Amino acid sequence: MAKFRYDKNKKRPLAKRILILILAVALLLGIIVMAIPARAEGSTENLTVQSFETGKLADAISEAADGTDYNFIKNIAVLSGTLNAEDYNALTAIPNLEIIELAGTETEGGIIPENALPSRNQLTVLTLPKNTVEIGKNAFSGNRKLVKVLMPATVTKIDDYAFAACEALEEVPVSAAVTYIGEGAFQDCKAITEFVIPAGISELYPNTFSKCGFESISIGPDVKKIGGSVFADCNNLKDIYAYGEEAPALDSDVFRNVSAAVHCYEDSEESYESWKQNNITISADLTGEYSLKAEVSAENSETYEAAAAETEKADNDEPQTEASEEEAVPAQGQTDTQPVQSQSAQSGGLSVGVVIVIVVMAMIIAVLATVLVMMKKGGKS
Q1: Distance CA 173, CA 322 (A)
Q2: Mean pLDDT (whole number) for 340-347
Q3: Which of 87, 145, 283, 351 lies in the 20 to 30 Å Cα band around 101?
């Protein structure tokens, strides 16, 4: 009688096919999953909002983003509209913003509210609304990567700690219009190498410039008092240009850990003798009248000139007749805000949600295929 012998080699081709199928599906899933962040980042890096209704910037951003992940948005430009505190809060919902452009917008009452955009981890360039008059307390504090701020010449007040701990900040276009710089406003701004305190400022409040990276600073002629620790720990400060005919009164620790020469007019030398302390020396070699050197840069001026031109063009393009006004009314179902959609929406590409659905479907197909193969194997045995 012939003895039945089990041949293991018969199962090997089927096992190999199952293994190859699983590997192929896994490879496909890997390619799709890896493509999601690359595609999303490339398609939503730049976002433009054409206009919005005050208090509803979040809705306009959501429409422009077209459902894509806010984590991939790096730059945003808002071209028109008036921002309030809620709208600034909407910008904080986008965690990785590097550039925020608001030159074409206005801020409610000309005031940027307290804590408007503090501690943004990636923010490097910020353009303020064109009608800004006052920058609120802690408005942009803790933006450690912020390098450049563009602001209109309408700004008159920079409140307490507005730019404190902006360690990388190199350029702040403080113009002659600024008449108030608050306590700690530029504290710990290590990258600023020079600063001009405008005429019209009568008092410097405590810690305004402490721990800054100044090499030189010019003090306007109207300053009468300098508060405690204003220049404390400005270790790079070497030259102080004091344009006042009378030396401003000093509070405690103004020049703590500072080694610098105070340059004043010859007629004022005796008054500034009171400033001599530790490593502070007086040099009566100042000549010429005080002039504000820290005027806004060409880039800053051009930015707001362009914004003003756009506003004027928009006003001139408004419908003038009843017929044209009717034509300008949005069709039923449309809104009066028309944000520019992200590139993914414009190009008709797949959104992240669609890709995720495809991945899930591929996984389901892989599982079903494996089950069917196994069932077939079981039937043959």
Answers
A1: 44
A2: 38
A3: 351
